[in-house]
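User: Please fill in residues for this 456-position structure.
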Protein backbone atom coordinates (compact mmCIF):
# COMPACT_ATOMS: atom_id res chain seq x y z
CA UNK A 1 0.00 0.00 0.00
CA UNK A 2 1.35 3.44 -0.95
CA UNK A 3 2.31 5.90 1.76
CA UNK A 4 0.46 9.19 2.17
CA UNK A 5 2.35 12.49 2.19
CA UNK A 6 0.16 15.26 3.61
CA UNK A 7 1.37 18.81 2.99
CA UNK A 8 -0.27 21.80 4.66
CA UNK A 9 0.63 25.25 5.93
CA UNK A 10 0.55 24.08 9.54
CA UNK A 11 0.90 20.61 11.02
CA UNK A 12 -1.43 19.38 13.78
CA UNK A 13 -0.69 15.79 14.75
CA UNK A 14 -1.50 14.59 18.26
CA UNK A 15 -2.56 16.54 21.32
CA UNK A 16 -5.92 17.27 22.91
CA UNK A 17 -6.67 20.38 20.83
CA UNK A 18 -6.89 18.55 17.50
CA UNK A 19 -9.90 19.28 15.34
CA UNK A 20 -11.75 16.63 13.37
CA UNK A 21 -9.75 17.27 10.19
CA UNK A 22 -6.43 16.80 12.00
CA UNK A 23 -7.76 13.65 13.65
CA UNK A 24 -8.71 12.19 10.25
CA UNK A 25 -5.42 13.05 8.57
CA UNK A 26 -3.51 11.64 11.53
CA UNK A 27 -5.54 8.43 11.35
CA UNK A 28 -4.83 8.10 7.63
CA UNK A 29 -1.11 8.60 8.20
CA UNK A 30 -1.09 5.96 10.92
CA UNK A 31 -2.92 3.53 8.61
CA UNK A 32 -0.92 4.13 5.43
CA UNK A 33 2.37 5.36 6.86
CA UNK A 34 3.92 8.53 5.54
CA UNK A 35 4.69 12.07 6.65
CA UNK A 36 2.83 15.27 7.50
CA UNK A 37 4.91 18.17 6.19
CA UNK A 38 4.48 21.91 6.67
CA UNK A 39 5.58 25.13 8.33
CA UNK A 40 6.46 24.87 12.02
CA UNK A 41 4.94 28.26 12.81
CA UNK A 42 8.39 29.42 13.92
CA UNK A 43 10.62 32.14 12.52
CA UNK A 44 14.32 31.76 11.65
CA UNK A 45 16.86 34.47 10.83
CA UNK A 46 17.96 32.61 7.69
CA UNK A 47 16.19 29.87 5.77
CA UNK A 48 18.32 26.71 5.68
CA UNK A 49 15.84 24.02 4.68
CA UNK A 50 16.49 22.19 7.94
CA UNK A 51 13.67 19.75 8.68
CA UNK A 52 12.45 19.12 12.22
CA UNK A 53 11.26 15.51 12.45
CA UNK A 54 8.99 14.31 15.25
CA UNK A 55 6.98 11.19 15.96
CA UNK A 56 3.68 12.12 17.61
CA UNK A 57 1.03 9.48 18.42
CA UNK A 58 2.29 7.24 15.63
CA UNK A 59 2.47 10.06 13.05
CA UNK A 60 5.74 11.33 11.59
CA UNK A 61 5.80 15.10 11.15
CA UNK A 62 8.36 17.13 9.23
CA UNK A 63 8.36 20.90 9.69
CA UNK A 64 10.51 23.81 8.57
CA UNK A 65 11.04 27.31 9.93
CA UNK A 66 10.51 30.36 7.71
CA UNK A 67 12.23 33.73 7.58
CA UNK A 68 10.43 36.85 8.81
CA UNK A 69 10.03 38.10 5.23
CA UNK A 70 8.48 34.79 4.16
CA UNK A 71 5.99 34.93 7.01
CA UNK A 72 5.04 38.52 6.29
CA UNK A 73 4.69 38.15 2.51
CA UNK A 74 3.54 34.53 2.12
CA UNK A 75 1.38 34.01 5.21
CA UNK A 76 0.26 37.38 6.59
CA UNK A 77 0.36 38.93 3.12
CA UNK A 78 -0.75 36.87 0.14
CA UNK A 79 -2.54 34.08 2.01
CA UNK A 80 -4.41 36.18 4.55
CA UNK A 81 -4.59 39.68 3.07
CA UNK A 82 -5.06 38.77 -0.59
CA UNK A 83 -6.46 35.26 -1.11
CA UNK A 84 -8.57 34.89 2.04
CA UNK A 85 -10.70 38.04 1.57
CA UNK A 86 -10.96 37.57 -2.21
CA UNK A 87 -12.08 33.94 -1.93
CA UNK A 88 -14.65 34.99 0.69
CA UNK A 89 -16.03 37.63 -1.71
CA UNK A 90 -14.51 40.59 0.15
CA UNK A 91 -12.59 42.30 -2.65
CA UNK A 92 -12.97 45.53 -0.66
CA UNK A 93 -10.53 44.05 1.86
CA UNK A 94 -8.17 42.27 -0.54
CA UNK A 95 -4.69 43.79 -0.85
CA UNK A 96 -2.87 43.24 -4.14
CA UNK A 97 0.86 43.74 -3.56
CA UNK A 98 3.55 42.34 -5.86
CA UNK A 99 5.77 41.67 -2.87
CA UNK A 100 3.03 39.47 -1.37
CA UNK A 101 2.70 37.45 -4.58
CA UNK A 102 6.47 37.12 -4.84
CA UNK A 103 6.80 35.96 -1.25
CA UNK A 104 4.00 33.45 -1.72
CA UNK A 105 5.75 31.96 -4.75
CA UNK A 106 9.11 31.92 -2.99
CA UNK A 107 7.72 30.13 0.06
CA UNK A 108 6.08 27.47 -2.13
CA UNK A 109 9.35 26.94 -3.98
CA UNK A 110 11.05 26.44 -0.62
CA UNK A 111 8.38 23.97 0.44
CA UNK A 112 8.89 22.05 -2.81
CA UNK A 113 12.68 21.96 -2.51
CA UNK A 114 12.47 20.73 1.06
CA UNK A 115 9.75 18.11 0.82
CA UNK A 116 10.84 16.58 -2.50
CA UNK A 117 13.61 14.34 -1.05
CA UNK A 118 11.11 12.91 1.46
CA UNK A 119 8.74 11.58 -1.24
CA UNK A 120 9.20 8.01 -2.44
CA UNK A 121 8.18 6.85 -5.96
CA UNK A 122 4.83 5.25 -5.03
CA UNK A 123 3.69 7.78 -2.42
CA UNK A 124 0.38 9.61 -2.74
CA UNK A 125 0.85 13.35 -2.18
CA UNK A 126 -2.06 15.35 -0.78
CA UNK A 127 -1.73 19.16 -0.58
CA UNK A 128 -4.15 21.09 1.62
CA UNK A 129 -5.66 24.52 1.05
CA UNK A 130 -5.04 27.94 -0.40
CA UNK A 131 -1.61 28.50 1.12
CA UNK A 132 -0.14 26.06 -1.41
CA UNK A 133 -1.86 26.51 -4.77
CA UNK A 134 1.49 26.52 -6.70
CA UNK A 135 3.08 23.59 -4.86
CA UNK A 136 1.95 20.90 -7.31
CA UNK A 137 3.44 22.76 -10.27
CA UNK A 138 6.68 23.32 -8.36
CA UNK A 139 6.92 19.61 -7.54
CA UNK A 140 6.24 18.68 -11.18
CA UNK A 141 8.94 21.06 -12.39
CA UNK A 142 11.36 19.24 -10.12
CA UNK A 143 10.52 15.93 -11.75
CA UNK A 144 7.92 14.46 -9.37
CA UNK A 145 5.68 12.03 -11.26
CA UNK A 146 3.61 10.79 -8.30
CA UNK A 147 -0.16 11.20 -8.00
CA UNK A 148 -0.74 14.60 -6.41
CA UNK A 149 -4.09 15.77 -5.07
CA UNK A 150 -5.21 19.17 -3.81
CA UNK A 151 -8.14 19.99 -1.55
CA UNK A 152 -9.50 23.51 -1.10
CA UNK A 153 -11.02 24.14 2.32
CA UNK A 154 -12.45 27.58 1.49
CA UNK A 155 -14.86 28.74 -1.25
CA UNK A 156 -13.77 29.18 -4.86
CA UNK A 157 -14.97 32.60 -6.08
CA UNK A 158 -16.97 33.26 -9.27
CA UNK A 159 -15.00 33.93 -12.44
CA UNK A 160 -15.47 37.69 -12.57
CA UNK A 161 -14.50 38.02 -8.91
CA UNK A 162 -11.35 35.93 -9.37
CA UNK A 163 -10.43 38.07 -12.37
CA UNK A 164 -9.67 40.95 -9.99
CA UNK A 165 -6.59 39.01 -8.84
CA UNK A 166 -3.60 40.03 -11.01
CA UNK A 167 -2.14 36.49 -10.83
CA UNK A 168 -5.44 34.66 -11.36
CA UNK A 169 -4.43 32.82 -14.54
CA UNK A 170 -1.05 31.74 -13.15
CA UNK A 171 -2.76 30.52 -10.00
CA UNK A 172 -5.21 28.37 -11.97
CA UNK A 173 -2.49 27.10 -14.31
CA UNK A 174 -0.57 25.98 -11.23
CA UNK A 175 -3.56 24.00 -10.00
CA UNK A 176 -3.74 22.10 -13.28
CA UNK A 177 -0.51 20.33 -12.28
CA UNK A 178 -2.54 18.29 -9.77
CA UNK A 179 -4.24 15.02 -10.72
CA UNK A 180 -7.28 15.67 -8.54
CA UNK A 181 -8.72 18.93 -7.18
CA UNK A 182 -11.31 18.69 -4.41
CA UNK A 183 -13.94 21.23 -3.32
CA UNK A 184 -16.53 21.14 -0.56
CA UNK A 185 -19.51 21.82 -2.83
CA UNK A 186 -20.69 21.59 -6.41
CA UNK A 187 -20.95 25.39 -6.46
CA UNK A 188 -17.23 25.89 -5.87
CA UNK A 189 -16.39 23.13 -8.37
CA UNK A 190 -18.55 24.73 -11.03
CA UNK A 191 -17.02 28.17 -10.38
CA UNK A 192 -13.55 26.71 -10.95
CA UNK A 193 -14.67 24.94 -14.12
CA UNK A 194 -16.32 28.12 -15.37
CA UNK A 195 -13.06 30.04 -15.09
CA UNK A 196 -11.08 27.38 -16.97
CA UNK A 197 -13.72 27.16 -19.72
CA UNK A 198 -14.23 30.89 -20.23
CA UNK A 199 -10.72 32.21 -19.61
CA UNK A 200 -8.53 29.32 -20.73
CA UNK A 201 -10.59 27.49 -23.35
CA UNK A 202 -10.88 24.29 -21.33
CA UNK A 203 -13.68 21.72 -21.41
CA UNK A 204 -15.34 19.74 -18.64
CA UNK A 205 -17.40 16.57 -19.14
CA UNK A 206 -20.26 14.99 -17.21
CA UNK A 207 -17.78 13.12 -14.99
CA UNK A 208 -16.10 16.40 -14.01
CA UNK A 209 -12.99 15.62 -16.05
CA UNK A 210 -11.50 18.98 -16.97
CA UNK A 211 -9.23 19.18 -20.01
CA UNK A 212 -7.13 22.18 -21.04
CA UNK A 213 -4.08 22.29 -23.31
CA UNK A 214 -3.98 18.49 -23.46
CA UNK A 215 -3.93 18.09 -19.70
CA UNK A 216 -6.83 16.31 -17.94
CA UNK A 217 -7.56 16.88 -14.25
CA UNK A 218 -10.39 15.37 -12.25
CA UNK A 219 -12.57 17.70 -10.17
CA UNK A 220 -14.36 16.31 -7.12
CA UNK A 221 -17.05 17.74 -4.84
CA UNK A 222 -16.30 16.12 -1.50
CA UNK A 223 -17.65 17.91 1.60
CA UNK A 224 -15.52 17.42 4.70
CA UNK A 225 -17.23 16.16 7.84
CA UNK A 226 -16.46 15.75 11.52
CA UNK A 227 -15.78 12.69 13.61
CA UNK A 228 -19.42 12.56 14.69
CA UNK A 229 -19.08 9.67 17.13
CA UNK A 230 -16.05 11.21 18.75
CA UNK A 231 -17.82 14.56 19.17
CA UNK A 232 -20.92 12.89 20.57
CA UNK A 233 -18.59 11.20 23.07
CA UNK A 234 -17.23 14.62 23.99
CA UNK A 235 -20.81 15.72 24.69
CA UNK A 236 -21.23 12.76 27.07
CA UNK A 237 -17.96 13.41 28.91
CA UNK A 238 -17.64 14.57 32.50
CA UNK A 239 -16.14 17.91 31.42
CA UNK A 240 -19.08 18.50 29.06
CA UNK A 241 -21.57 17.71 31.81
CA UNK A 242 -19.78 20.14 34.15
CA UNK A 243 -19.79 22.84 31.49
CA UNK A 244 -23.46 22.19 30.69
CA UNK A 245 -24.40 22.61 34.35
CA UNK A 246 -22.35 25.81 34.74
CA UNK A 247 -23.79 27.39 31.63
CA UNK A 248 -27.38 26.46 32.47
CA UNK A 249 -26.97 27.76 36.01
CA UNK A 250 -25.52 31.04 34.75
CA UNK A 251 -28.48 31.49 32.38
CA UNK A 252 -30.82 31.55 35.40
CA UNK A 253 -33.62 29.74 33.59
CA UNK A 254 -33.31 31.77 30.40
CA UNK A 255 -33.03 30.19 26.96
CA UNK A 256 -29.47 30.13 25.66
CA UNK A 257 -28.57 30.97 22.05
CA UNK A 258 -24.97 30.18 21.17
CA UNK A 259 -22.51 31.17 18.46
CA UNK A 260 -18.94 29.84 18.24
CA UNK A 261 -16.71 31.34 15.57
CA UNK A 262 -13.13 32.37 15.00
CA UNK A 263 -13.01 36.18 15.06
CA UNK A 264 -13.14 36.80 11.32
CA UNK A 265 -15.08 39.14 9.02
CA UNK A 266 -16.27 36.15 6.96
CA UNK A 267 -18.24 34.77 9.91
CA UNK A 268 -20.96 37.43 9.80
CA UNK A 269 -20.71 38.31 13.49
CA UNK A 270 -21.65 41.95 13.06
CA UNK A 271 -24.70 40.97 10.99
CA UNK A 272 -25.58 38.31 13.59
CA UNK A 273 -25.54 40.86 16.40
CA UNK A 274 -27.75 43.18 14.36
CA UNK A 275 -30.20 40.35 13.64
CA UNK A 276 -30.33 39.48 17.33
CA UNK A 277 -30.86 43.15 18.19
CA UNK A 278 -33.80 43.24 15.79
CA UNK A 279 -35.26 40.17 17.52
CA UNK A 280 -34.98 41.92 20.89
CA UNK A 281 -36.68 45.03 19.52
CA UNK A 282 -39.51 43.15 17.78
CA UNK A 283 -40.19 40.74 20.66
CA UNK A 284 -40.17 42.82 23.86
CA UNK A 285 -42.13 40.17 25.79
CA UNK A 286 -39.52 37.51 25.04
CA UNK A 287 -36.31 39.46 25.11
CA UNK A 288 -35.54 38.95 28.81
CA UNK A 289 -36.11 35.22 28.37
CA UNK A 290 -33.07 34.73 26.11
CA UNK A 291 -29.31 35.20 26.25
CA UNK A 292 -26.87 35.13 23.32
CA UNK A 293 -23.49 33.65 24.20
CA UNK A 294 -21.00 34.49 21.45
CA UNK A 295 -17.60 32.81 21.73
CA UNK A 296 -15.13 34.39 19.29
CA UNK A 297 -11.44 33.64 19.89
CA UNK A 298 -9.15 36.15 18.15
CA UNK A 299 -7.12 35.20 15.09
CA UNK A 300 -4.53 36.86 12.82
CA UNK A 301 -4.20 39.79 15.18
CA UNK A 302 -1.40 41.34 13.13
CA UNK A 303 -3.72 41.93 10.15
CA UNK A 304 -5.47 45.33 10.25
CA UNK A 305 -8.87 44.05 9.08
CA UNK A 306 -9.00 41.63 12.03
CA UNK A 307 -8.21 44.40 14.48
CA UNK A 308 -11.05 46.43 13.00
CA UNK A 309 -13.63 43.63 13.26
CA UNK A 310 -12.74 43.07 16.90
CA UNK A 311 -13.17 46.77 17.68
CA UNK A 312 -16.46 46.89 15.77
CA UNK A 313 -17.93 43.88 17.60
CA UNK A 314 -16.89 45.14 21.01
CA UNK A 315 -18.61 48.45 20.28
CA UNK A 316 -21.72 46.79 18.89
CA UNK A 317 -22.06 44.37 21.83
CA UNK A 318 -21.68 47.28 24.22
CA UNK A 319 -24.30 49.35 22.42
CA UNK A 320 -26.85 46.50 22.33
CA UNK A 321 -26.28 45.64 25.98
CA UNK A 322 -26.49 49.29 26.95
CA UNK A 323 -29.80 49.73 25.12
CA UNK A 324 -31.51 46.52 26.24
CA UNK A 325 -29.96 45.20 29.47
CA UNK A 326 -31.70 45.30 32.83
CA UNK A 327 -30.42 45.11 36.39
CA UNK A 328 -30.58 41.32 36.30
CA UNK A 329 -30.03 40.55 32.60
CA UNK A 330 -27.51 41.21 29.84
CA UNK A 331 -28.63 40.16 26.34
CA UNK A 332 -25.17 39.40 24.88
CA UNK A 333 -22.26 37.63 26.53
CA UNK A 334 -19.33 38.22 24.23
CA UNK A 335 -16.25 36.10 25.00
CA UNK A 336 -12.89 36.53 23.20
CA UNK A 337 -11.24 33.22 24.06
CA UNK A 338 -11.31 29.64 22.88
CA UNK A 339 -12.31 26.51 24.78
CA UNK A 340 -11.46 22.81 24.47
CA UNK A 341 -13.76 20.65 22.37
CA UNK A 342 -15.29 18.81 25.34
CA UNK A 343 -16.26 22.12 26.96
CA UNK A 344 -17.70 23.40 23.68
CA UNK A 345 -19.77 20.22 23.40
CA UNK A 346 -21.28 21.05 26.80
CA UNK A 347 -22.02 24.62 25.68
CA UNK A 348 -23.71 23.38 22.48
CA UNK A 349 -25.91 20.97 24.43
CA UNK A 350 -26.87 23.65 26.94
CA UNK A 351 -28.22 25.91 24.21
CA UNK A 352 -31.61 25.73 22.52
CA UNK A 353 -30.46 27.53 19.38
CA UNK A 354 -27.17 27.38 17.50
CA UNK A 355 -26.47 30.46 15.36
CA UNK A 356 -24.08 29.66 12.51
CA UNK A 357 -24.42 32.56 10.10
CA UNK A 358 -21.23 33.19 8.11
CA UNK A 359 -21.40 35.55 5.15
CA UNK A 360 -19.39 32.97 3.20
CA UNK A 361 -17.78 29.76 4.40
CA UNK A 362 -16.12 26.80 2.72
CA UNK A 363 -17.91 24.33 4.99
CA UNK A 364 -18.32 25.35 8.66
CA UNK A 365 -17.79 22.37 10.91
CA UNK A 366 -19.29 24.17 13.91
CA UNK A 367 -22.71 23.52 12.36
CA UNK A 368 -22.00 19.79 12.32
CA UNK A 369 -20.49 19.80 15.81
CA UNK A 370 -23.58 21.57 17.14
CA UNK A 371 -25.80 18.81 15.74
CA UNK A 372 -23.57 16.01 17.04
CA UNK A 373 -23.57 17.46 20.57
CA UNK A 374 -27.36 17.58 20.98
CA UNK A 375 -29.54 15.54 23.34
CA UNK A 376 -31.55 13.23 21.01
CA UNK A 377 -34.61 13.58 23.25
CA UNK A 378 -34.51 17.38 23.45
CA UNK A 379 -32.27 18.78 20.69
CA UNK A 380 -31.61 22.41 19.94
CA UNK A 381 -32.34 24.11 16.62
CA UNK A 382 -29.62 24.98 14.13
CA UNK A 383 -29.93 28.32 12.32
CA UNK A 384 -27.53 28.18 9.39
CA UNK A 385 -26.42 30.63 6.71
CA UNK A 386 -27.39 29.54 3.22
CA UNK A 387 -23.92 30.76 2.18
CA UNK A 388 -22.05 28.22 4.31
CA UNK A 389 -20.86 25.15 2.41
CA UNK A 390 -22.62 23.02 5.03
CA UNK A 391 -26.02 24.35 3.87
CA UNK A 392 -25.84 22.06 0.82
CA UNK A 393 -26.03 19.05 3.16
CA UNK A 394 -28.07 20.48 6.04
CA UNK A 395 -31.42 21.48 4.59
CA UNK A 396 -33.25 20.60 7.82
CA UNK A 397 -31.61 23.55 9.56
CA UNK A 398 -33.37 26.91 9.44
CA UNK A 399 -31.54 28.44 6.48
CA UNK A 400 -31.16 32.23 6.46
CA UNK A 401 -29.60 35.05 4.48
CA UNK A 402 -27.09 36.37 7.06
CA UNK A 403 -27.14 39.84 5.46
CA UNK A 404 -30.82 40.19 6.46
CA UNK A 405 -31.45 41.16 10.08
CA UNK A 406 -35.13 40.40 9.46
CA UNK A 407 -34.42 36.81 8.42
CA UNK A 408 -32.20 36.20 11.44
CA UNK A 409 -34.85 37.69 13.73
CA UNK A 410 -37.61 35.61 12.14
CA UNK A 411 -35.53 32.44 12.38
CA UNK A 412 -34.89 33.05 16.07
CA UNK A 413 -38.64 33.43 16.65
CA UNK A 414 -39.32 30.21 14.72
CA UNK A 415 -36.61 28.28 16.54
CA UNK A 416 -37.70 29.38 19.99
CA UNK A 417 -41.33 28.49 19.29
CA UNK A 418 -40.59 25.14 17.60
CA UNK A 419 -42.22 22.07 19.17
CA UNK A 420 -40.10 19.25 20.57
CA UNK A 421 -41.47 16.88 17.93
CA UNK A 422 -40.39 19.18 15.12
CA UNK A 423 -36.97 19.72 16.69
CA UNK A 424 -36.43 15.98 16.99
CA UNK A 425 -37.55 15.35 13.40
CA UNK A 426 -35.16 17.94 12.01
CA UNK A 427 -32.29 16.84 14.26
CA UNK A 428 -32.57 13.18 13.26
CA UNK A 429 -32.18 14.00 9.57
CA UNK A 430 -29.31 16.36 10.26
CA UNK A 431 -27.57 13.82 12.48
CA UNK A 432 -27.99 11.07 9.89
CA UNK A 433 -26.10 13.16 7.37
CA UNK A 434 -23.41 14.16 9.88
CA UNK A 435 -22.80 10.49 10.75
CA UNK A 436 -22.95 9.10 7.20
CA UNK A 437 -20.75 11.80 5.69
CA UNK A 438 -18.23 12.07 8.48
CA UNK A 439 -14.57 13.00 8.17
CA UNK A 440 -13.46 9.41 7.48
CA UNK A 441 -15.98 9.22 4.61
CA UNK A 442 -14.41 12.40 3.19
CA UNK A 443 -10.92 11.01 3.63
CA UNK A 444 -11.68 7.72 1.89
CA UNK A 445 -13.64 9.35 -0.93
CA UNK A 446 -10.78 11.69 -1.76
CA UNK A 447 -7.90 9.24 -1.43
CA UNK A 448 -9.78 6.57 -3.43
CA UNK A 449 -10.32 9.10 -6.21
CA UNK A 450 -6.66 10.15 -6.07
CA UNK A 451 -5.54 6.57 -6.69
CA UNK A 452 -7.65 6.34 -9.87
CA UNK A 453 -5.47 7.29 -12.78
CA UNK A 454 -6.71 9.45 -15.66
CA UNK A 455 -5.21 9.20 -19.13
CA UNK A 456 -3.65 12.46 -20.35
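Assistant: Residues filled in for all 456 positions:
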Amino acid sequence: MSRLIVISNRVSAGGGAQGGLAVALSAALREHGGIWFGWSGNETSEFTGHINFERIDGVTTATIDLEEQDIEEYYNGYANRTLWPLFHYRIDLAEYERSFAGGYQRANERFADTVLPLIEPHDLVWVQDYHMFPLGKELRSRGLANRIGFFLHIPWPPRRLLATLPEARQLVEGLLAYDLIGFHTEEWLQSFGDYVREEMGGTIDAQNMLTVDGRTVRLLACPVGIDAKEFAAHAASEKAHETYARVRESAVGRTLIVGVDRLDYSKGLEERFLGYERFLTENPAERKEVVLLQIAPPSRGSVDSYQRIRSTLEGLAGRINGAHAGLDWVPIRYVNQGYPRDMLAGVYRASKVGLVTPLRDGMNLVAKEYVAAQDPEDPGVLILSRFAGAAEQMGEALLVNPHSAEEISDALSTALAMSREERIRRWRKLMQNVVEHDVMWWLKRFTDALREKVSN
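For context: Residues 182 and 453 are 15 Å apart (CA to CA).
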